[in-house]
Structures are given as structure tokens and as C-alpha cells.
UniProtKB/TrEMBL annotation:
Pfam families: polyprenyl_synt (PF00348). One of its GO terms (cellular component) is cytoplasm. InterPro entries: Isoprenoid_synthase_dom_sf, Polyprenyl_synt, Polyprenyl_synt_CS, Prenyl_diphosphate_synthase. Keywords: Isoprene biosynthesis, Magnesium, Metal-binding, Transferase. It is an enzyme of class 2 (transferase). The lineage of its organism: Bacteria, Bacillati, Bacillota, Bacilli, Bacillales. Its cofactor is Mg(2+). GO terms for biological process: terpenoid biosynthetic process. One of its GO terms (molecular function) is metal ion binding. It comes from the Bacteria. This is Farnesyl diphosphate synthase. It comes from Anoxybacillus flavithermus. Its EC number is 2.5.1.10.
Length: 290
């Protein structure tokens, strides 16, 4: 399984710069876009999309453009998250953040460029019917926008310095992190011609996986290795953010992580596809150290 995921990751990382280099745009903006796109990372969102396609025994090539567009949107969100007006981070994956290298104005524009270009990449994707493209673009806009990631980020900002309830915290993470992860799986299922029942089960699976992913993030912010994470640990405490460990204790957060992963795997087994690669990604999410 590991070799297959590595192969998929290489495909994504080879294609991303091709999209940027083909742009007829100022070199500064292309450099800033590429800087964050090539900063490393797990590529968990595009890998989930391609692994879902694999589960339906489809050629993963048909999902490469959508997977790259998805990674562009995720990368734009990280650039903006790191800005002084948001999390004010100096490091991302062990490297200076985009605004530290290119300045705040160009970092904002690089994020804007990645967001808008992502939809062009999906719209221009070959081997996908117009009807399916429209559906994928619509769902991507919803997952990334005010009803998804952006809405979750706003709720996260509003929750800083306040004691919030677990239900509010889950809203933040279901939207800020979970909606794009959920889209990854849904897009793969749509391209894989899943039935409505299969799509429903995979959506529920992705919901649990997304929450588990964020819980693991919260745990790593307490007991992670800064060298592996690539940024300072303890930033949630420093920013006075409510997290799963702060609401449930560290042991309670680990129990919650286990419960979500158990339910995710159970749902995955009900889909009726070759979910071996998706199960492998579940293991990565649950045990990752960065």
C-alpha cells in the first residue's frame, strides 16, 4: 500500500508545478504560489481522492486535475492562515512562511491566485463530462467557502480566548478541516460512479476521518516533536484556543480519536469496494507524528 500512495503522491507533486509554470503571469506570483505548493506536506486530500478512485477500480489519471485543484485550495488556506492577521506563524513545515519570504501583499495574492486557479484547473480537466465537472466545482466551492472551510475559520477566530463547548469545537473542525477532507472522498466517489448509498456511506466515513485528523493535530500540538511537525508546538495554548485535549483532557482526546477511527473503518467496510488503500490512510491519520 505504501508504494502505491508514494506513486500517487509523486504524480501530484510532478503535476502541480506544471500547472503553475504554464501560467502567463508575473514571475513573482508564480514563485510565491510554487513556494508554498512545494513546501512538502502529506498531500492527504489528493491522496484520499485518488485512493477513493482506486477503491472503485478506476484509472486514477482521471482524478489528477481535481486532486491538484484541491491541493491548491488547501495550500491557499495555509498561506492565509499563517498571516499576521490570522495565526501569525513564522514557520510552516520547517520553512519560513510565505509572507516572511514574499511579503504580506504577495502572500495574500498568492493565496488568491491558488484559490481562483484551482477552479480553472478543474474546469479544464480532460476526460470528465461537463455535468460531472459542474457538480465537482459546485461541491468544491461549497466545501471551501462560507458553508465550509472559510466558515470554520471564522468560527475558530471567534472562539479564541473563549471557553467553548465540544459541540462548537466540532462545528469548527467539521468545517475548517473536515469539509475539504470530505470533498476529497466525495469527489473520488463521484468520479468513480458510486451509487447514492455508497456516496452517503463514504461521506459519513470522511466526516469521522476529518474529526479524527483534527483531534490528532490537537494532540500533536501538545506532545509532538517540533522537528517532525516543522513548527512550534504549544501554539494552541499560546493563542488561547479551545482544543480536544483542553476540553476532554489528553487521554479523553485520545479516546475520542479512537472512537472516530473505529466508526470510520466500520462505515468503510459497508461500502462494498476494495477499500484497502483507504484503510491504510486511516492508519496514517491515526498514528501520524507530523
Amino acid at each position: 500500500m505504501e508504494w502505491l500512495l508514494r506513486q500517487y503522491k509523486e504524480q501530484i507533486e510532478q503535476q502541480l508545478p506544471v500547472y503553475i509554470e504554464s501560467l502567463r503571469a508575473p514571475e513573482t506570483i508564480k514563485e510565491a504560489m510554487l513556494y508554498s505548493l512545494q513546501a512538502g506536506g502529506k498531500r492527504i486530500r489528493p491522496l484520499l481522492l485518488l485512493a477513493t478512485l482506486h477503491a472503485f477500480r478506476k484509472q486514477v489519471d482521471i482524478g489528477i486535475a481535481v486532486a491538484c485543484g484541491l491541493e491548491m485550495i488547501h495550500t491557499y488556506s495555509l498561506i492565509h492562515d499563517d498571516l499576521p492577521s490570522m495565526d501569525n506563524d513564522d514557520l510552516r513545515r520547517g520553512k519560513p512562511t510565505n509572507h516572511k519570504v514574499f511579503g504580506e501583499a504577495n502572500a495574500i495574492l498568492a493565496g488568491d491566485a491558488l484559490l481562483t486557479y484551482a477552479f480553472q484547473v478543474v474546469a479544464d480537466a480532460e476526460a470528465i463530462s461537463p455535468d460531472v465537472k459542474v457538480r465537482l466545482i459546485s461541491e468544491l466551492a461549497k466545501a471551501a467557502g462560507p458553508e465550509g472551510m472559510v466558515g470554520g475559520q471564522v468560527a475558530d477566530l471567534e472562539g479564541e480566548g473563549k471557553m467553548i463547548h465540544l459541540q462548537q469545537l466540532e462545528y469548527i473542525h467539521r468545517h475548517k478541516t473536515g469539509k475539504l477532507l470530505q470533498y476529497s472522498v466525495r469527489a473520488g466517489a463521484i468520479l468513480g460512479e458510486a451509487t447514492e448509498k455508497q456516496l452517503t456511506l463514504l461521506t459519513l466515513f470522511a466526516d469521522h476521518l476529518g474529526l479524527a485528523f483534527q483531534i490528532r493535530d490537537d494532540i500533536l500540538d501538545i506532545e509532538g516533536d517540533e522537528q517532525k511537525i516543522g513548527k512550534k508546538v504549544g501554539s494552541d495554548i499560546e493563542n488561547d484556543k479551545s482544543t480536544y485535549p483542553s476540553l476532554l483532557t489528553l487521554d479523553g482526546a485520545k479516546k475520542k480519536l479512537y472512537d472516530h477511527m473505529k466508526e470510520a473503518r466500520k462505515l468503510l467496510d459497508e461500502v462494498g469496494v476494495d477499500a484497502s488503500l483507504l484503510h491504510y490512510i486511516c492508519n496514517i491519520v491515526e498514528t501520524r507524528d507530523h
